[in-house]
Amino acid sequence: MICAALLIAAPLSASAPQAVPADGRTTAPVELSGGPELLAGEKPELPDQGSVTCAETAVIPAQGQAARLLAYASAKARQITCTAHRRGDSVSFSVRAEPPGPGLYASLDHQLALSAFRILPDGSAAVPPSLRVAVSAGQLAGGRVVLPGRSPRALAVALIDARGEGAAFLPVPGRTQLHLESKRGATLSVRVAGALFGPVRAADGKATLPVQVPPGVRQGVVRAVDRVGNARELPIDLGTPDLARIAAVLEAMQVTADEELRVAIAVAAADGAPADTAPRAEAKRGTISAPAPKGRGLWVARYRAPSTPGSDTIRVEVPGDAGAGRIELKVDVIPGAPARVSLVPPGPVHAGEELAVRLSVRDSAGNTLTRIPLEAHLAGAPARVSWDGAVAAVLAQAPERSGPAELAVRAPGAAPAAMRIEVLPAEASSAQITADAGEREARVRALVRDRFGNALGASGFSLAARGASVGELAPTAAGHAEATLKADPRSRSADAEITAAGKVLARTTVRFEPPADAWLLFAGASGGAMSNGGALRTARLGVEIGIRRQFGGIEAALLTGADAISFRGDIIGDVAGAAVTVSQHLFALTVPVLARARLPFARRFGIGLELGPLATFAWASAQSQVSGKETQTSLAPGFRARASLDYKLGRSRVLVGAGWGTARLPDSSPLHGEIEGKSVFLGYEAWLLDLGP
Question: What are 190's strand-pairing partners?
Fold first, then answer.
């Protein structure tokens, strides 16, 4: 005895739109509410969402969302009667199917009968012109879709005619036998997408139950009620396969080389509704555009055939949806126009000169054609065509502007022929020359133009120099040419000139720095700070003059000059046993004689080391209120060493460095101790005179 009774909380009701478009592509939801409460043993996580059946409309069952109606396409309005079922209760309702707007449609019903029609702007139906149809599975035979096997199918239909594209969709349920096991004598039933199948009695604990499985439904619910009335429900895997859900059709099976075809692509979701995910299309030889949406479930792409005849393959699939499958469309690419034009490349062409380009015209079989009318343009300007037997020539004047120019030739019925002709500048007419001089090298830029203003680059002229050797001319993207001048061993300057056709077009003078073995007289100034490691800390300013020369990779120099320091300070001294404030003052003038060795690096930098003796003239004084003022002048010999880093700027250098030296005042001086010590400095020097050789 079954002890699970139905407890009706509220009548079952169905909420559906009053009207749906009868286009075979648009879905309309049906919401169920009320009805019996959960049955005994029914799991909340596996609820009965109910089912909907309609006489003349496909239904996509509820799976996490409401059931949806998918009306068959129709050019006339009709009333659709439906019934909703849930837990033994049912309710009927009706929906009006309205004809869609103008477009291409197909009616596909439960019996898989397929008929296509086009609705015109006035609302009347007509036979589609040049109709082509493709289905995602099976074959069209006698106005019906014949499917292989009994598996559930999400059927998609793609349509294309001379005016546009269309699609239709139909969820086709599959039929299978479920082999169930339970307690002996139990009553078994199966719920698939809200539809109930059974019950059957498992007399010996086993039973077989035929069911219908809609596409996309992968799980059912088995309900078992034993002989004493205990009920329980368990999920069951229905083993629903993933089958192709893509239909694609070309507007023609043949296409002329390098021309276009439309491709209509219809994609169904796993449950049979129109899919939302866009497909991807690619061609093996030609090119195909990204599919563009044309309403739900329908996309249109444009295929351009390759320029050579033969077969091509178009592949269509859905990214991220491997279950949708992949299809391939074969297309034959046939030759184009029955004639072709062949152009023979001319020799070098210069701006403004007359040119002749030879050509021949052949049919698709390769036969030579003569005396046919031809239309030619060079750089957009009309050109004259002259025939000499089977060979023609295009006669025209080259453009005045250098660069690529297109020659286009058309023959009636033949694919247009085009040739890219590189127009070179004419003879050199004017020039500009500039130079960027370094130490013993200079970078020369030459800009040479013809009479039309075209830049010649690095050809059509020569660059020569007196006092320097000229490297190879190299063209640049800006249109000028560049070359390196290397000064002759004893040269201080060079005269560079550009010549073309025996005529000097431009000249300039380039000045170099003296050669490495030249003696240079230089002078400089420096400023910094020094400390003797004690109380003496003061600024130091100096000037210098010297002579320098390069010996191999080392520069040697001998320099002298003068620098001065000044210091004032107070100390606490002991005078007659008393602490007294003593004021001290020092002014020192130092004359060093230094030898320098400098190692250049990185073209503009150098490291220098200076060593040598020095003589310091010091004027020192000390004064207090007790002893009065004591003054003494002294000469202190000493030694100085400096290291520096310099950066070269033309004839001058900027130096930064540090030094160490020693020079002590005599003990008899009011101030005594070290007056040279450690120092840092910033200097500037420049050579003044080139002494040769």
Answer: 197, 222
- CA-CA distance, 533 to 330, in Å (whole number)? 95
DSSP codes of every residue in 39-99: PTT--TTS----EEEESSEEEE--SSS-EEEEEPP-SS-EEEEEEEEETTEEEEEEEEEE-
Distance of alpha carbon 48 from alpha carbon 191, whole angstroms: 8
What pLDDT, on a 0 to 100 scale, did the predictor assign at position 360?
84
**Over 60: is that where the pLDDT of 642 sits?**
yes
Q: Does 4 have pLDDT greater than 50?
A: no
Which DSSP state fits 99? -
DSSP letters spanning 92-140: EEEEEEE---SEEEEEE-TT-BEEEEEE-TTS-EEPPTT-EEEESSSEE
Q: How many angstroms separate the Cα of 188 from the Cα of each of 37, 42, 184, 227?
A: 20, 14, 11, 11
Query: Taking phi first (over 0 means left), then psi (-120 to 50 degrees means alpha), and beta for anything else, what does residue 675 get?
Result: alpha
Give the whole-angstrom CA distance, residue 492 versus residue 511: 6
Three-class secondary structure of residue 324 per DSSP: helix
Q: Over 438-463, what HEC string results?
A: CCCEEEEEEEEEECCCCECCCCCCEE
pLDDT in tens, 275-331: 999 999 999 999 999 999 999 999 999 999 987 778 999 999 999 998 899 999 999
Contact 508, 482 (CB under 8 A): no
Under 8 Å between Cβ of 61 and 191 = no
Within 8 A by CB and 6+ apart from 37, the residues are 6, 7, 8, 9
Q: Quick one: pLDDT at residue 650?
A: 81
Distance CA 569, CA 102 (A): 107
Check if the beta carbon of residue 374 is closer than 8 Å to that of residue 409.
yes
Task: Read off the pLDDT of residues 322-365 as tens digits, 9 standing for 90 and up.
Answer: 889 999 999 998 765 556 788 888 888 998 899 888 988 775 54
Beta bridge partners of 385: 394
CA dihedral sign of residues 298, 304, 310, 313:
negative
pLDDT grade for 366, boundaries at 50, 70 and 90 = low
Q: Which residues are CB-neighbours of 650 under 8 A, at least 6 positions away?
A: none
- Predicted local confidence at residue 369, as pLDDT: 63
Check residue 102 and give its pLDDT.
Answer: 94
CB atoms within 10 A of CB 176: 18
Q: Are 271 and 245 spatial neighbours (Cβ–Cβ below 8 Å)? A: no
Residue 533, classed as helix, strand or coil, is coil
Q: What contacts 119, CB < 8 A, 6 or more positions away?
A: 75, 99, 100, 101, 102, 103, 105, 125, 126
CA distance 463 to 444: 10
Please report how many Cα atoms fall inside a 13 Å half-sphere around the Cα of residue 431, on the Cβ side. Answer: 28
| Residue 414 DSSP class | B
Lowest-confidence segment of 41-55, 353-367, 604-618 by average pLDDT: 353-367
Average pLDDT, the chain: 89
* Among 400, 186, 413, 158, residue whose Cα is nearest residue 294: 158
* Residue type for position 223: R
